[in-house]
């Protein structure tokens, strides 16, 4: 019976995310290994991780150590980068920066790269909130059409590394959703974040869930963390009101990593245990 349980469990790709727990990527890999995770997501918002990744000798160490420990590597790109800024030089820098990260991750045989598109600016116009893309809809749509085409063509060089756009910020603008429908496929993919959906109001939540249900085959990473809907708490699973069983059943037949994006690392382990308990209680394991 125990063997059957572990066989079922091994069907799915579980990972934990490491953000501030360590100052080096090798220690994050070691922690995943010691706690029986087959994969780890390295969050490059850590002060030190990106500087390590930028050094060729460090990339070699990361590759060799991950292979030695049999740990698959996933990465979350730095946040704060925005493709919505109107200055072409800044936008070009953001795009090239993502390409550079993609190339680094290719060297170390990473499997996923999660990115944020950034957000547009909101201006007060006679008591109303107006975003720049709403004033210049055609310009923004033409620009992002070119951006997505350029990215999709660039990442074809390594079809084993999925470039995943996460549901946050400008992801939710209707013209972006429309363009994503045009370009999704190959290794141009999606990251579904459960906590981000839970913060949305009723209609926006319904629209986002419908989008993911329609395009579930392109969801290659899922960030699992809990909240009560008031803010993005990244809480331990079970300390909020998210229906994790729904997301598991949506994605269980996908080539998708279930990533416990809960900090610190000990909370991720508790979340994993709570998640497994939910699956067992509902006949999924």
Automatic annotation (TrEMBL):
Domain Xylose isomerase-like TIM barrel, residue spans: 31-267
An example molecular function term from Gene Ontology annotations: isomerase activity
Gene3D superfamilies assigned to the protein according to its UniProt record, in alphabetical order: Divalent-metal-dependent TIM barrel enzymes
Keyword set includes Cytoplasm: no
Keywords: Isomerase
Superkingdom of this protein's organism: Bacteria
GTP-binding listed as a keyword: no
Family annotation (Pfam families): AP_endonuc_2 (PF01261)
The protein's name: Sugar phosphate isomerase/epimerase
């Amino acid at each position: 019976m125990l063997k059957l349980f572990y066989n079922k469990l091994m069907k799915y790709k579980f990972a934990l995310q490491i953000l501030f727990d360590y100052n080096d990527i090798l220690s994050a890999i070691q922690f995943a290994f010691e706690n029986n995770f087959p994969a780890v997501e390295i969050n490059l918002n850590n002060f030190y991780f990106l500087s390590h990744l930028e050094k060729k000798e460090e990339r070699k160490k990361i590759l060799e150590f991950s292979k030695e420990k049999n740990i698959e590597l996933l990465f979350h790109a730095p946040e704060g980068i925005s493709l919505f800024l109107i200055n072409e030089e800044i936008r070009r820098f953001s795009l090239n920066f993502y390409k550079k990260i993609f190339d680094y991750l290719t060297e170390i045989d990473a499997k996923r790269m999660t990115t944020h598109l950034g957000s547009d600016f909101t201006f007060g116009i006679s008591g109303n909130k107006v975003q720049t893309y709403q004033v210049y809809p055609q310009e923004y749509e033409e620009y992002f059409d070119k951006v997505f085409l350029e990215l999709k063509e660039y990442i074809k060089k390594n079809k084993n590394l999925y470039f995943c756009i996460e549901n946050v910020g400008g992801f939710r603008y209707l013209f972006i959703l429309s363009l994503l429908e045009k370009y999704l496929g190959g290794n141009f993919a999606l990251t579904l974040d459960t906590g981000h959906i839970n913060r949305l109001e009723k209609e926006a939540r319904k629209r986002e869930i419908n989008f993911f249900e329609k395009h579930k085959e392109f969801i290659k990473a899922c960030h699992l963390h809990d909240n009560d809907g008031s803010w993005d708490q990244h809480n331990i699973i079970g300390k909020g009101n998210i229906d994790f069983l729904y997301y598991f059943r949506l994605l269980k037949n996908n080539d998708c990593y279930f990533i416990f994006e809960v900090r610190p690392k000990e909370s991720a382990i508790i979340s994993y245990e709570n998640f497994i308990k939910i699956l067992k209680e509902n006949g999924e394991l």
